[in-house]
Write the structure tokens for this entry.
Amino acid sequence: MKALNGFGFPVLRFNFRGAGLSHGEHDYGSGEVADVRAALDWLGEEFHLPLIFAGFSFGAAVGLRAACEDARVKALIGVGTPVAPVTSDAAAPRTYTFEFLRDCSEPKLFVSGARDPFGPRARLEALMVSVSEPKKLVLIEGADHFFEGRLRELRETIESWVREALGSQLSALS
């Protein structure tokens, strides 16, 4: 959030349905994809700027799906993207599929902690083989799923990639 806002992008950060003080009930990904679409619609109508999607963990898993099919989105960032089954309070672990990334032609950055149990290196690297170009995977050594003690490196990684991937498009914000 801070990395993108530092470039002048307006940032919308929200809880999905049923999380925190938000209304509604968790919908195991289906309704949450619709929530991301609604957020992208609002940002597009409100600011009329190129959109960059960034999501963390569950937000990355469902948000990438919504953002890949939206022509207004010019770049995508998945932070702590869960590629290994995620155990929750429910009886069955959550698993996510990312086949849709094969046809997603926008620049994509994936950043994970090297010690993230939901993003093991081998599974992330296997995912990257199937993801269309342009794409980049960055593993931050020593970082866990929440990047505890490594948030500075996370922010610097995102800032550097945005400059690299969107250099000339950043002038649209001036």
Notes: The longest helix spans residues 30-47. The chain has a mean pLDDT of 89. The helical segments are 2-6, 30-47, 58-68, 121-130, 151-166. The chain has one domain: 2-166.
